[in-house]
Amino acid sequence: MEAGNKRLFYITSSRNRWLMEASLEDAYRSVPFGQVALLYNLDRYGWKAQKSGFHASVCPWQVARTMKQFKPSMVLTSGTTGFSPVFARRMSRYSVPIVIAWEDYYDVLWRANFGRVAGAFMRWFERQLVIRSDYVITISLYNKSRAEAWGKKTWYVPNGCDVPEYDQSKCAVRLEGKMNLVYCGDQGPYKQAGDIIKVMGAVPPEIKLYLVGDPNPAFHKYASSNVIFLGRLSENDKWAVMSRADVLVCTANTDCNAKFHEYLRMGKPILGYDGIPNYLFNNRRNALLTKDYPSAIMELYRSPELRRSLAENAAKDIPVYEWREIARRFDLALLEIQDEYRSRTTRLANGRGCLAHQTEGL
Question: In this structure, are residues 18 and 36 in contact, taking their beta carbons and an 8 Å threshold?
Fold first, then answer.
């Protein structure tokens, strides 16, 4: 492998057509964040990417064929098809480092969506994906601690968020509570939005919770009158609504939710779940993390000073990087991994050569 060669084979279990079929430029215009933003900005640092989605990456033989044709200097996997390049490398005998971009808690996600048995299986499977990769890059400090406990060298690169551009005057949505909570994003079981929706009837009606995103019909049957489902909004209106909030809410038991970094951009106090988010936040200093939402909401309501200090400390404590900066950190990590893998394979080859030489002398 040529030193400094930047050819990235990106393998993902995603079924998103815009990620797999569109050019990076077209995809980035539609989705200027997440995987697309990372690949788009890595291209600016010289990485030429070959992308394989779920259907192309689930088969090791197809992955091996692409590896031979594309000749990558790095394989980066994301999602649950990460075994394919491990087998493909053996079949193709093409020596290249395999790095897992560990972005989520697959076991928790599967348990929330498919039940305990599926979650238990994925807990085992997730560990296999990590330990059978050569190296790990993760957006989660919690996952970093898990990977290192399993003996894997790991790089932490957080989620990113570009500085938003929006026009308040073009947003017709008005927040009408004396204290307005805003939750933005997915309302599926993994995100645990129902935990706060269920308890809003226990706080005064002048405290209102606004939810931005596709509404979950299951929540309507127990949502109190101070819960308002705004539905999916334009990007402009989404940012405008967040900027008008008194408190931004993220109920997911995660430290790597992209929503956290969007919230941090807005300079607002954050209310979250008292669990894994402690890996990112210092509870009661730069976020309020709780398992008792009514009490936490009332504390925030009664204490504007607490809201102010949480927001100010978060701005001081937790940097938020634009996607071009995240891509630069990825670039440096991938180059470091290339050098380490090259040194490791050289040492192994020299070790085998010494052993063969000793055996010949017997």
Answer: yes
CATH number at residue 84: 3.40.50.2000
What does the pLDDT average to over 279-304? 98
Give the residue with greater pLDDT, 113 vs 360: 113
At 50-60, the pLDDT tens digits run 999 998 899 99
Q: What is the pTM of this model?
A: 0.90
161 touches 258 (CB < 8 A): yes
pLDDT digits (tens, 9 = 90+) for 167-208: 999 999 999 999 999 999 999 999 999 999 999 999 999 999
| Domain around 269 | 168-317
Helix or strand or coil: residue 273?
strand
3-class DSSP state of 243: helix
Same domain for 230 and 180: yes
- Exposed/middle/buried for residue 62 (C-beta within 10 Å: 0-12, 13-18, 19+): middle
Question: Residue 361: inside a domain, yes or no?
Answer: no
Asked if 135 and 56 sit in the same domain, the reply is: yes
Contact indicator for 289, 277 with CB cutoff of 8 Å: yes
Do 242 and 303 reside in the same domain of the chain? Answer: yes
> 113 phi and psi, to 5 degrees?
-95, -30
- The reply to whether 128 and 266 lie within a common domain is no
